[in-house]
Amino acid sequence: MDKYGQLADFLQARRGQLQPEDVGLRTYGERRRVPGLRREELAMLAGISAPYYARLEQGQSHNASPEVLDALAGALRLDESERAHLHALARAPRKSRAATRPRPERVSGATRALLAAIADTPAIVIGRRSDVLAWNAQGHALFAGHLDPAAPDDPPRRPNMARLVFLDAHTRDLYADWPAKAKAVVGNLRLAAGRHPDDPLLAALIGELTMRSEEFATMWADHRIVACDVADYAMRHPLVGTLTVTQQTLQSPQGDGPALVVATATPGSPSATALTLLAHATAPEERRPARPVRDAGTPAT
Fold first, then answer.
1. Ordered strands of the 230-237 beta sheet
2. What is the pLDDT of residues 122-152, one digit of tens each?
3. Distance CA 280, CA 165 (A)
4. Which of 113, 127, 272, 278 could be bridged to 131 by S-S, CB 3.0 to 4.6 A?
5. Measured between alpha carbons, how far is 197 from 34 in angstroms, rounded to an integer?
6. 0.85 cut: is pTM over it?
7. 207-238 core/surface letters (b: 16 or more CB in 10 A; e: else)
8. pLDDT of 210 higher than 90
9. By the 8 A CB rule, do 141 and 263 touch?
Protein backbone atom coordinates (compact mmCIF):
# COMPACT_ATOMS: atom_id res chain seq x y z
CA MET A 1 0.00 0.00 0.00
CA ASP A 2 1.47 3.35 -1.07
CA LYS A 3 0.80 5.90 1.67
CA TYR A 4 0.79 8.85 -0.71
CA GLY A 5 -1.49 6.93 -3.05
CA GLN A 6 -3.83 6.45 -0.10
CA LEU A 7 -3.69 10.21 0.58
CA ALA A 8 -4.59 11.00 -3.02
CA ASP A 9 -7.46 8.50 -3.02
CA PHE A 10 -8.76 9.81 0.32
CA LEU A 11 -8.78 13.44 -0.83
CA GLN A 12 -10.43 12.62 -4.14
CA ALA A 13 -13.11 10.44 -2.56
CA ARG A 14 -14.01 12.91 0.17
CA ARG A 15 -14.08 15.82 -2.28
CA GLY A 16 -16.51 13.85 -4.42
CA GLN A 17 -18.85 13.39 -1.44
CA LEU A 18 -19.35 17.14 -0.87
CA GLN A 19 -21.81 19.09 -2.98
CA PRO A 20 -21.37 22.84 -3.63
CA GLU A 21 -24.55 23.61 -1.72
CA ASP A 22 -23.15 21.73 1.28
CA VAL A 23 -20.46 24.39 1.67
CA GLY A 24 -22.45 27.42 0.56
CA LEU A 25 -21.23 27.65 -3.04
CA ARG A 26 -23.64 28.74 -5.75
CA THR A 27 -23.58 26.85 -9.04
CA TYR A 28 -26.11 28.92 -11.03
CA GLY A 29 -27.52 25.72 -12.51
CA GLU A 30 -24.51 24.81 -14.65
CA ARG A 31 -24.01 21.17 -15.56
CA ARG A 32 -21.09 19.57 -13.71
CA ARG A 33 -19.13 16.75 -15.28
CA VAL A 34 -18.12 15.06 -12.02
CA PRO A 35 -19.91 14.65 -8.70
CA GLY A 36 -18.88 16.71 -5.73
CA LEU A 37 -16.64 19.73 -5.46
CA ARG A 38 -14.13 20.66 -8.12
CA ARG A 39 -10.47 20.78 -7.15
CA GLU A 40 -10.31 24.54 -7.46
CA GLU A 41 -13.40 24.93 -5.28
CA LEU A 42 -11.92 22.84 -2.50
CA ALA A 43 -8.61 24.69 -2.80
CA MET A 44 -10.44 28.01 -2.48
CA LEU A 45 -12.31 26.83 0.61
CA ALA A 46 -9.03 25.65 2.18
CA GLY A 47 -7.18 28.85 1.24
CA ILE A 48 -4.49 27.16 -0.84
CA SER A 49 -3.62 27.38 -4.51
CA ALA A 50 -5.43 25.11 -6.96
CA PRO A 51 -2.19 23.84 -8.58
CA TYR A 52 -0.76 22.92 -5.18
CA TYR A 53 -3.93 21.06 -4.21
CA ALA A 54 -3.92 19.26 -7.57
CA ARG A 55 -0.39 18.00 -6.85
CA LEU A 56 -1.52 16.75 -3.45
CA GLU A 57 -4.45 14.87 -4.92
CA GLN A 58 -2.24 13.38 -7.61
CA GLY A 59 0.26 12.14 -5.04
CA GLN A 60 2.99 14.43 -6.37
CA SER A 61 3.51 16.62 -3.29
CA HIS A 62 4.87 15.00 -0.14
CA ASN A 63 5.40 17.96 2.17
CA ALA A 64 1.99 19.27 3.18
CA SER A 65 2.24 21.24 6.43
CA PRO A 66 -0.03 20.53 9.41
CA GLU A 67 -1.67 23.91 8.79
CA VAL A 68 -2.53 23.02 5.20
CA LEU A 69 -3.87 19.64 6.29
CA ASP A 70 -6.03 21.24 8.97
CA ALA A 71 -7.37 23.71 6.40
CA LEU A 72 -8.24 20.83 4.06
CA ALA A 73 -9.84 18.89 6.91
CA GLY A 74 -12.01 21.89 7.71
CA ALA A 75 -13.00 22.39 4.08
CA LEU A 76 -13.85 18.71 3.73
CA ARG A 77 -15.77 18.76 7.02
CA LEU A 78 -13.82 15.88 8.50
CA ASP A 79 -14.43 14.76 12.05
CA GLU A 80 -11.59 14.23 14.53
CA SER A 81 -10.92 10.63 13.51
CA GLU A 82 -10.86 11.55 9.83
CA ARG A 83 -8.62 14.55 10.51
CA ALA A 84 -6.13 12.34 12.36
CA HIS A 85 -6.25 9.86 9.48
CA LEU A 86 -5.51 12.64 6.97
CA HIS A 87 -2.45 13.70 8.99
CA ALA A 88 -1.27 10.08 9.23
CA LEU A 89 -1.52 9.62 5.47
CA ALA A 90 0.40 12.82 4.77
CA ARG A 91 3.18 12.07 7.24
CA ALA A 92 6.44 11.16 5.52
CA PRO A 93 7.06 7.41 5.85
CA ARG A 94 10.07 6.37 7.87
CA LYS A 95 13.00 5.04 5.89
CA SER A 96 13.33 1.36 6.53
CA ARG A 97 15.24 -1.65 5.39
CA ALA A 98 13.95 -3.96 2.72
CA ALA A 99 10.45 -5.11 3.54
CA THR A 100 10.32 -8.23 5.67
CA ARG A 101 7.46 -10.36 6.84
CA PRO A 102 5.94 -8.74 9.95
CA ARG A 103 6.62 -10.42 13.24
CA PRO A 104 3.70 -12.46 14.59
CA GLU A 105 1.51 -10.58 17.03
CA ARG A 106 1.43 -12.04 20.51
CA VAL A 107 -0.53 -11.52 23.71
CA SER A 108 1.47 -10.62 26.80
CA GLY A 109 1.14 -12.52 30.05
CA ALA A 110 -0.33 -9.41 31.67
CA THR A 111 -3.08 -9.24 29.06
CA ARG A 112 -3.91 -12.92 29.53
CA ALA A 113 -4.13 -12.32 33.27
CA LEU A 114 -6.52 -9.44 32.60
CA LEU A 115 -8.71 -11.69 30.44
CA ALA A 116 -8.84 -14.19 33.29
CA ALA A 117 -9.63 -11.48 35.83
CA ILE A 118 -12.68 -10.33 33.86
CA ALA A 119 -13.85 -13.85 33.11
CA ASP A 120 -17.49 -12.87 33.64
CA THR A 121 -17.29 -10.10 31.01
CA PRO A 122 -17.06 -11.00 27.29
CA ALA A 123 -13.64 -9.89 26.08
CA ILE A 124 -11.37 -10.54 23.12
CA VAL A 125 -7.92 -9.32 22.14
CA ILE A 126 -7.48 -8.32 18.50
CA GLY A 127 -4.37 -7.41 16.55
CA ARG A 128 -3.92 -4.51 14.16
CA ARG A 129 -5.22 -6.60 11.24
CA SER A 130 -8.29 -7.59 13.32
CA ASP A 131 -6.95 -11.11 14.01
CA VAL A 132 -8.33 -12.58 17.24
CA LEU A 133 -5.23 -13.16 19.38
CA ALA A 134 -7.07 -14.35 22.49
CA TRP A 135 -10.48 -14.39 24.14
CA ASN A 136 -12.00 -15.46 27.40
CA ALA A 137 -14.80 -18.02 27.52
CA GLN A 138 -17.49 -15.35 27.56
CA GLY A 139 -15.92 -13.48 24.64
CA HIS A 140 -15.80 -16.67 22.60
CA ALA A 141 -19.41 -17.51 23.49
CA LEU A 142 -20.74 -14.07 22.59
CA PHE A 143 -18.80 -13.27 19.42
CA ALA A 144 -17.93 -16.62 17.88
CA GLY A 145 -19.40 -19.55 19.73
CA HIS A 146 -19.57 -21.53 16.48
CA LEU A 147 -15.77 -21.58 16.21
CA ASP A 148 -13.18 -23.72 17.98
CA PRO A 149 -12.40 -21.98 21.30
CA ALA A 150 -8.72 -22.90 20.91
CA ALA A 151 -8.39 -21.32 17.44
CA PRO A 152 -6.71 -18.05 18.61
CA ASP A 153 -3.86 -20.06 20.14
CA ASP A 154 -2.90 -21.43 16.70
CA PRO A 155 -1.74 -18.54 14.42
CA PRO A 156 -2.65 -20.24 11.12
CA ARG A 157 -6.21 -20.85 12.39
CA ARG A 158 -6.78 -17.54 14.15
CA PRO A 159 -10.20 -16.03 13.41
CA ASN A 160 -10.17 -12.61 11.81
CA MET A 161 -13.00 -10.29 12.82
CA ALA A 162 -13.07 -8.47 9.47
CA ARG A 163 -13.42 -11.76 7.60
CA LEU A 164 -16.08 -12.93 10.03
CA VAL A 165 -18.16 -9.76 9.68
CA PHE A 166 -18.10 -9.79 5.88
CA LEU A 167 -17.78 -13.47 4.98
CA ASP A 168 -19.26 -15.51 7.85
CA ALA A 169 -23.04 -16.05 7.90
CA HIS A 170 -23.17 -16.61 11.68
CA THR A 171 -21.45 -13.29 12.44
CA ARG A 172 -23.53 -11.43 9.89
CA ASP A 173 -26.74 -12.69 11.52
CA LEU A 174 -25.40 -11.86 14.97
CA TYR A 175 -25.63 -8.09 14.42
CA ALA A 176 -29.13 -6.67 14.01
CA ASP A 177 -27.66 -3.56 12.35
CA TRP A 178 -25.01 -5.32 10.32
CA PRO A 179 -24.15 -2.29 8.11
CA ALA A 180 -23.20 -0.25 11.19
CA LYS A 181 -20.85 -2.98 12.39
CA ALA A 182 -19.42 -3.46 8.90
CA LYS A 183 -18.69 0.26 8.51
CA ALA A 184 -16.92 0.29 11.86
CA VAL A 185 -14.74 -2.65 10.78
CA VAL A 186 -13.84 -0.91 7.51
CA GLY A 187 -13.08 2.30 9.37
CA ASN A 188 -10.68 0.48 11.69
CA LEU A 189 -8.93 -1.16 8.75
CA ARG A 190 -8.61 2.28 7.11
CA LEU A 191 -6.89 3.62 10.21
CA ALA A 192 -4.59 0.59 10.37
CA ALA A 193 -3.68 0.95 6.69
CA GLY A 194 -2.80 4.60 7.25
CA ARG A 195 -0.55 3.76 10.20
CA HIS A 196 1.04 0.69 8.60
CA PRO A 197 1.21 1.23 4.82
CA ASP A 198 4.06 -1.27 4.43
CA ASP A 199 2.33 -4.22 6.09
CA PRO A 200 1.95 -6.88 3.36
CA LEU A 201 -0.39 -9.05 5.44
CA LEU A 202 -2.74 -6.12 5.98
CA ALA A 203 -2.64 -5.30 2.27
CA ALA A 204 -3.39 -8.95 1.47
CA LEU A 205 -6.38 -8.97 3.84
CA ILE A 206 -7.83 -5.81 2.27
CA GLY A 207 -7.29 -7.25 -1.21
CA GLU A 208 -8.98 -10.51 -0.26
CA LEU A 209 -12.02 -8.77 1.22
CA THR A 210 -12.28 -6.46 -1.78
CA MET A 211 -12.35 -9.45 -4.13
CA ARG A 212 -14.70 -11.61 -2.05
CA SER A 213 -17.20 -9.02 -0.80
CA GLU A 214 -18.83 -6.42 -3.01
CA GLU A 215 -20.13 -4.69 0.12
CA PHE A 216 -16.61 -4.39 1.52
CA ALA A 217 -15.32 -3.04 -1.80
CA THR A 218 -18.03 -0.37 -1.83
CA MET A 219 -17.40 0.68 1.77
CA TRP A 220 -13.63 0.68 1.27
CA ALA A 221 -13.91 2.95 -1.78
CA ASP A 222 -16.02 5.39 0.25
CA HIS A 223 -12.97 6.34 2.38
CA ARG A 224 -15.07 7.13 5.43
CA ILE A 225 -13.54 6.67 8.85
CA VAL A 226 -15.95 5.47 11.54
CA ALA A 227 -14.45 5.64 15.00
CA CYS A 228 -15.79 2.79 17.11
CA ASP A 229 -13.94 3.06 20.42
CA VAL A 230 -17.36 2.79 22.08
CA ALA A 231 -20.49 1.61 20.28
CA ASP A 232 -23.80 -0.02 21.15
CA TYR A 233 -24.85 -3.04 19.12
CA ALA A 234 -28.10 -4.98 19.14
CA MET A 235 -27.28 -8.66 18.78
CA ARG A 236 -29.36 -11.76 17.97
CA HIS A 237 -27.58 -14.54 19.78
CA PRO A 238 -28.59 -18.12 18.92
CA LEU A 239 -28.43 -19.22 22.60
CA VAL A 240 -29.88 -16.29 24.57
CA GLY A 241 -31.84 -14.31 21.99
CA THR A 242 -31.84 -10.55 21.53
CA LEU A 243 -29.59 -8.34 23.64
CA THR A 244 -27.82 -5.00 23.37
CA VAL A 245 -24.19 -4.65 24.41
CA THR A 246 -21.76 -1.76 24.58
CA GLN A 247 -18.50 -2.70 22.88
CA GLN A 248 -15.48 -0.76 24.13
CA THR A 249 -12.10 -0.94 22.42
CA LEU A 250 -9.16 -0.21 24.73
CA GLN A 251 -5.91 0.54 22.92
CA SER A 252 -2.76 2.59 23.26
CA PRO A 253 -3.09 6.20 22.03
CA GLN A 254 -0.68 5.44 19.18
CA GLY A 255 -2.86 2.61 17.92
CA ASP A 256 0.06 0.17 18.14
CA GLY A 257 -0.16 -3.24 19.70
CA PRO A 258 -3.17 -5.43 20.41
CA ALA A 259 -6.49 -3.93 21.51
CA LEU A 260 -8.83 -5.28 24.17
CA VAL A 261 -12.51 -5.33 23.20
CA VAL A 262 -15.01 -5.81 26.01
CA ALA A 263 -18.80 -6.07 25.86
CA THR A 264 -20.99 -4.92 28.72
CA ALA A 265 -24.70 -4.43 29.31
CA THR A 266 -26.63 -2.03 31.51
CA PRO A 267 -26.83 -3.55 35.01
CA GLY A 268 -30.26 -4.97 35.76
CA SER A 269 -31.34 -4.87 32.13
CA PRO A 270 -32.67 -7.83 30.12
CA SER A 271 -29.40 -7.73 28.19
CA ALA A 272 -27.41 -8.13 31.40
CA THR A 273 -29.61 -11.12 32.25
CA ALA A 274 -28.94 -12.56 28.80
CA LEU A 275 -25.17 -12.30 29.38
CA THR A 276 -25.57 -14.09 32.69
CA LEU A 277 -27.56 -16.84 30.98
CA LEU A 278 -24.88 -17.10 28.31
CA ALA A 279 -22.19 -17.51 30.96
CA HIS A 280 -24.21 -20.27 32.62
CA ALA A 281 -25.00 -22.02 29.35
CA THR A 282 -21.38 -22.12 28.22
CA ALA A 283 -19.63 -22.70 31.56
CA PRO A 284 -17.84 -26.03 32.07
CA GLU A 285 -19.81 -28.50 34.16
CA GLU A 286 -17.52 -28.09 37.17
CA ARG A 287 -18.16 -24.32 37.24
CA ARG A 288 -21.94 -24.48 37.06
CA PRO A 289 -23.75 -23.87 40.33
CA ALA A 290 -24.94 -27.11 41.87
CA ARG A 291 -28.66 -27.71 42.20
CA PRO A 292 -29.90 -27.80 45.81
CA VAL A 293 -29.95 -31.36 47.14
CA ARG A 294 -33.04 -32.31 49.17
CA ASP A 295 -32.28 -34.07 52.43
CA ALA A 296 -33.42 -37.69 52.30
CA GLY A 297 -35.45 -37.27 55.46
CA THR A 298 -37.25 -34.18 54.24
CA PRO A 299 -40.63 -34.90 52.65
CA ALA A 300 -41.14 -33.60 49.16
CA THR A 301 -43.48 -30.63 48.81
1. 132-135, 123-126, 259-264, 241-250, 230-237
2. 999 999 899 999 999 999 999 999 999 999 9
3. 26
4. 127
5. 29
6. no
7. ebbeeebeebeebbebbbbbbbeeeebebebe
8. yes
9. no
272 neighbors 219 (Cβ within 8 angstroms): no
- 209 and 166 Cβ atoms separated by less than 8 Å: yes
Provide the b/e sequence for 250-271 (b: ≥16 CB within 10 Å).
Answer: eeeeebeebbbbbbbbeeeeeb
Q: How far apart are CA 195 and CA 293, in angstroms?
A: 59
The amino acid at 59: G
- Per-residue pLDDT tens for 147-184? 999 999 999 899 999 999 999 999 999 999 999 999 99
What single letter denotes the amino acid at residue 141? A
Q: Taking residues 256-271, what's their average pLDDT?
A: 91
Q: At what angle do helices 137-144 and 270-282 cross, to 10 degrees?
A: 110
d(C-alpha 42, C-alpha 75), whole Å: 7
**Res 39 pLDDT > 60:** yes
Taking the C-alpha atoms of residue 174 and residue 170, their distance in angstroms, rounded to an integer, is 6
